[in-house]
Each structure stands twice: as structure tokens, then as C-alpha cells.
Amino acid sequence: MTTKTREQQLDELLDKQAIHELIMAYCNAADRHDHVKMRALYHEDAIDDHGHFAKGSAMEFIDKLPEIQAGMAILHHNVTTVNLKLDGDRAEGEVYILAFHKVKDGAQGYDVLIGGRYFDKYEKRNGVWKFSHRAIVADWAYPATPSAVKLDHPFLAGAHIGKPGPDDPSYAFFTMLKRGER
Questions:
Q1: What per-residue confidence (pLDDT) applies to 32?
Q2: Fold classification of 6-172 (topology level)
Q3: Pfam families, from UniProt (predicted)?
Q4: pLDDT at 107 over 90
Q5: Burial class (CB in 10 A: 0-12, 13-18, 19+), 17
């Protein structure tokens, strides 16, 4: 077993941080329906397997996102455990998520909270880490019909309310975290 030099350890740490930021950028792009940003997170030849929504080219999946997300009043992806393994300019990751979906369906809609994982493959090309393959795995789902979300609850009075797209309060608040960028 060879011991890594401090420089090698730092390079590995920087690569893992870049991949972690990629994972977080994906969640933000999904939740804000930011398809420009989403497209920038995948290599052009990447694969995405999102079950019945899309399997195949990641770019084709992203092309379908406006239609897929049209029925989503709220998307909220939360990353918990991240396991990464690096091998030069390639890496693999198992990323645990909790993803909340409030789906528009009639007057009340319904909710689905999913506990799952992303199985990821990443590649660093031209110094930038991006997804080369992403597959979603569902471990459990907790549905609620009708929706239990109450944005008009008194506890939220006066609070900024998140929204998909550029009407989200984050776009007016931030100057460094810009739409369409990592």
C-alpha cells in the first residue's frame, strides 16, 4: 500500500469538493426548473436513467424536463449521504436523497416524498467534473392525497415562498449564485 503525498491528498479533496458542488448544483437546477444550468452539469454524451420519465441521452432527458416539471408545483431535493470513489479523471458516487414533490392534479394535488439514491459516474474533462451517467434508484415513497402542503398556514405568514423558475426569491436575492450557472 502506497501512502499518498499531501499534494495528492489535496488534489483528491479538491476533486471530491468539485463533485459535491456538482451534486448540489443538480438539486438546485432541478428544484428551480433551471434547464440551462441542468444542461451545463452533464457531458454532451452523458446518459441519464430517470425511470419512466426518461432513459438514455441526458440531453434528451433535459429536453423533456419542461414537460415533466410542468405538473410539479414544488420540487425539493435534499442530499444526505455522499459516497465517492475517485480514479484519476473518473469517479463514481452513491448519493442518498430525499426528494419532495407536490404535484398539481385538480384542486388539491398530491404529494410524494421519495427516499432514494443516485448512482453516478463522473468524468473530469478539460479540468471540469460533470455527470457522465446518472441513474435514480427509489428506496421508498410516502404519498399523500390530497396534498398536505399548506403554504397559507399562519406559521408562514410574511415568509418568502419558494417557486420553480426565475420567480423564486433566490434570483432577486443572490448576485453570485446566478441562473444557468454552477
A1: 95
A2: Nuclear Transport Factor 2; Chain: A, (3.10.450)
A3: SnoaL_4
A4: no
A5: exposed
DSSP one-letter code for 178: -
Task: Region of 92 please: left (phi>0), alpha (psi -120 to 50) or beta.
Answer: beta
Would you say 90 and 123 are in contact if contact means Cβ atoms under 8 Å apart?
Answer: yes
Residue 132 CA, chain-centre distance (Å), reads: 14
Is residue 119 within 8 A of residue 139, CB to CB? The reply is no
Omega of the bond prior to 146 within 30 degrees of 0, cis?
Answer: yes
Q: 68 near 53, Cβ under 8 Å?
A: yes
Q: How far apart, in Å, are the Cα atoms of 139 and each of 41, 97, 136, 143?
A: 25, 10, 10, 14
The pLDDT of residue 37: 95
Q: For the chain, what are the domain ranges?
A: 6-172
Tell if the pTM clears 0.85, that is, is over it. yes
